[in-house]
Every structure is written in structure tokens, then in C-alpha cells.
Amino acid sequence: MTLTVEKELPVAESEKAKKFMEAVKPLIEGIEGCKVNVTSKLGVGDPYTTITGVMPIKGEEIINLEHQEGEVWLVDFWATWCGPCQKPMAHNQEMLEKRAADWGSNVRIIGISIDETKDAVVKHCEEKKWMSVEHYHKDKSTYKNDYNIRGVPTCMLIDTKGNIAFKGHPQSRDLEHDLDSLLSGETLTGKGCASTEEHPAQDGKAEMPKGYKELDSAAVSSEISSLYAVFEDLTKDEEILKLSANMQKASSILVLMMRYTPITEKFIGKYENERRLEGPQDNINKLKTVFDEKVKGSFEVILKEKPSDAQEKIQKSKPRLSLKMNEHGEF
User: Fold this and answer.
1) Fewer C-beta neighbours within 10 Å, C or N terminus of the chain?
2) Which of 112, 131, 125 is nearest to 50 (CA)?
């Protein structure tokens, strides 16, 4: 069993993250398979901090991107070699061609490329005719650590006051509408926005997230412990091994995601048994029967099956149970 706890707090709560890590360090020291990492990073709701050390694709002078009050920014982190980055960047160009007269200098659409060289960006943007966008090469910028950019494409929207209003995938929102909204002084809502409450509550009641229900954490924990022996037996069953030998996927995975809601002082969660079966249909049917008979519990069964004639061998391994906390405090 492994335990991983990860959480990123806003910069304003950096002292809280530091105190937490200091307190938890002696508790986990020497425990194998236990990793705890709570940090504070610039994120949605925080003031924009100047991105330093980038280089315009036209010119050799390294500059800093300083926000001016009244401006609305769309900052798009991308790369010329990134397939999913191409459509959003083309859309950036289209928006500027369509709305430049309306927006004037109040809206800036900025592309920051993570390509190895600036020359690749210049060539690509000139060929695509994407030169209305303000393009910069990352050069020696520390933006990746400052803003915790884990992959591209990722974009940020900065409001007129210089606060980060949204951070996420550029195709997850109507960016043209968002830019207009921010110019009008409106507050953005939805996933990835500063105004979105992760645990909204009215009149002392917490909203139940989709797919969640109240769980007895002690009962679920006991049930999972009892299922270890079941999974162990399955890995030693000759009939099971024979059935799964020529399947691409043959697994039964327990997934438990839980939240503790301070308002109700109760645990809510999702408790599922995800069964993935890919291979000959006859083998799939037999394994489904085995799982139905032997893997029983209070979980919801999520069946993912894909008939296939391929005879590719799969690597056998014992069932594993891992716990990880995401940005919502879910395990």
C-alpha cells in the first residue's frame, strides 16, 4: 500500500503550507511508501506576478511582461510541436483579426512558446500567418515554476485589476466571450475560475458533488481490507491466469475518492470497482462471471470491455491500492 498526499495552496497561504509540512515531517519520517507534498503556487485568484526573462520572437532583447491596470490578458503557453496547441493558437489569431478594432490596446493575447529555439517559433508563426498574437520565446524565464505550468496548451486570463481569473486548457471555455466579460468588469465562473467555490453551501447545507454520496469511511476501509485476500487469490487461480493470458487488459481495480465536509461533519465519496477487460469475447464473458461471483462489495461496478482477437500477452502483477489527494482534497 502507498499513500500520497499532494496539495497546492494559493500564494496567500504559503505560511500555512510551510507549517503543515513542518508538522507532518516527523509523522511520516521512515515510513516506506508515504509521500506528502503540500506547497503554495501562483494560481487562480492570486495577483498576476510579472513573467520575467522572455524574448520577443522579433528581436534579441529579453523583457518582462508587466500588466497595466485596465488591460485584459490571455496568456497562452504552447509549443510548435504540440498538436493540441495548434487549434487554440489559430483561434487566438482569428479573435484578433475579428475583434482588434473593438478591443484596441485593452486586450492583449500573448503566446509564450516552450520550444527549444526561438527560430522554430518564428518560422512556424510566419508560415501559419499567426503574427497578430504577441509571441515570445520562454528563453530563461522561470514561468514554469512560478505558475506551475505542467503541460501545454495551458492558458491564463488576467483581469483588469491584474488578478488571475482563469487557468486551464484554452479549449475548455469561450475565450472571446471571457475577454469581453472581463473588460466589462464581470467575474468569470466555472471550472478553473477564481469565483468557483469548491464546497458551496447555503443555509448550513453543503452541495453534493455529482456522483458522490455519504459513505461510512470505517465500513468502506474494512471492506477494502477484506478484499485484499480476494485479489490475492485471483492472482494465484490457474483458471484466471489461463483466461487472461491472451488478453490485452484483465483487471479489477478498486477506486475510492473521498471528501470530508466540515459543514456536515460527514464523509462523502465515490466508491467504485472498475473492471477493464479487453480480449476475446469468450474470455471476457468468463472473467465477468468470475468477478461477479468473487469480487463483491458495496461499491458501484464500472465495466469497461472491448472485444479483440489480438493474442498479445499481458504482464501479470498483484493488485495495488494507492491513495492520492487531488486539488479538491479528494483521496
Assistant:
1) N
2) 112
